Amino acid sequence: MSEVRIAAEPRTEFGKGAARRARRAGKVPAVLYGHGTEPRHITLPGHDLMLALKTPNVLLRVDGVEGRENLVLPKSVQRDPIKGFLEHVDLLVVKKGEKVNVEIAVNLTGDVAHGASVYQDLSTIEVAAEATHIPEGVEFSVQGMEDGSHVTAGQITLPAGVELVTDPEAWVASVSADQASEEESEGGAEDEGESAASESAE
Fold this sequence. Notes:
The protein is α+β, with helices and mostly antiparallel strands. It contains three helices and 14 strands. The chain has a seven-stranded mixed beta sheet. It starts with a strand and ends with a helix.
């Protein structure tokens, strides 16, 4: 998994006005919490944080908080609904060796049978993984799967040490015949029926 070191500054001003001033200065308000400690309010460099958050479940090493390094995972990211810039981030403090619940991407590979299409019901699944070894995603091959087939969360092979949290019976993907193929099949059946009726009449 990806790991990024980022420098933090203590935050002493609060409220919407203070948050706007921080963002104008290129910083993002954030809060660190977890492991029974009081929430700690900080600001992070906006550009560096934006780049780091492009990687799902990125592990951040935050410096400058109470004179020590903090290992954290982004748990809640608030963005402006129109412009998309970062407004606030909640960071969960983690320790090496502990497991955390996270969402990871499910990537489907391969081609289903001719005349069918695959529909992805879940793009992510929830897993429990060691905080410093979170997989960026998992793959599942749908190669050759036919109409009526489906993939459940329990069928996906996870990396060693990673446990499934999502219901193993939950459908991740399903395969259905293409509408055009169904119409062609129905049309063919109708043509055959008409031909048979014509031959009988003759």
